[in-house]
Amino acid sequence: MYYLLIIVQVYCLYHAYKNSKPYYWYFLIFFVPAIGPLIYIVTQMFNKNDAEKIQEEITLVLNPTKRIKDLEKKLQFIDTYTNRIELADAYFQNKDFTNAILNYNITLEDAVQDDLYARQNLILCYFQMKDYTAVIEQVEFIKAKSEFKGSKQQFCYGLALSELGKTAEAEVQLKAIDRPYSNYAERLELAKFYLDNNRTVEGKALLDEISIESQRLTKPNKKLYRTTIVEVQHLLATL
């Protein structure tokens, strides 16, 4: 603990020197151990923008609609593409997909802007609302672009095709997301797709593959994918 305090003290002195702080900070840091460096860190190293960002995040947790109301007022003051996208994103994050779709579609009226971002999010919105026909309609605008390949949008496209009974087309899209040591949730859905279509061999093979990979994951990744891994093990136990 003593050595840690010394390290913090030395770093604060270095920071004060590097940033040409008034001389009294050196006295406070050096002659008032622990408390001096703490005061310096809070008042001189803790960036105002960081504080504002933390305050904004806390506000969003306590009152998630505040950001939407602020952005609505901002848009009323000046209706720009950027302001409209920010509002649509806020609706999306708040799971208000109806209003998100409304605002993303309005941005598409601006022919000067690239429509990729809006259409990517429209696909996700329509998928959440189970409007699979609309998902496919939006995909047609962006599926030739490189950003679509291996994306979450391509995965949603595959599931939408499956829901509409286009099994062969769905498999092509879903298999594009099947990559070792990644996309575990998506690969689990592909395994379920095989099982639902009476292709037990392919389904079990993919589940086994995910299970083996999960044993080699780092502890943080095991925690991150825990829900998926548990479901994989459960499905394997039923086969």
Keywords:
239 residues; 4 domains; 15 helices; flat
Q: What does this entry look like structurally?
A:
It is a single chain. The longest helix is centred in the first third of the chain and has 17 residues, at 2-18. The protein is built from 15 helices and no strands. It folds into four domains: 1-46, no CATH class; 62-113, no CATH class; 118-177; 181-239, Methane Monooxygenase Hydroxylase, Chain G, domain 1. Helix content is 75%, strand content 0%. The mean pLDDT is 88.
- Structural class of the secondary structure composition? mainly alpha
How big a fraction of the residues is strand? under 5%
Main β-sheet description: none
Helix content: over 70%
The total of helices stands at: 15
Number of domains: 4
Head-to-tail CA distance between termini: 55 Å
Number of DSSP E strands: 0
Rough outline:
flat
Order of helices and strands: HHHHHHHHHHHHHHH
Low-confidence stretches: none
Could you state the oligomeric state of the chains shown?
Answer: single chain
Rg value: 26 Å
The overall pLDDT average reads 88
Provide a quick synopsis of the model:
By secondary structure, the protein is an all-alpha fold. It is 75% helix and 0% strand. The mean pLDDT is 88.
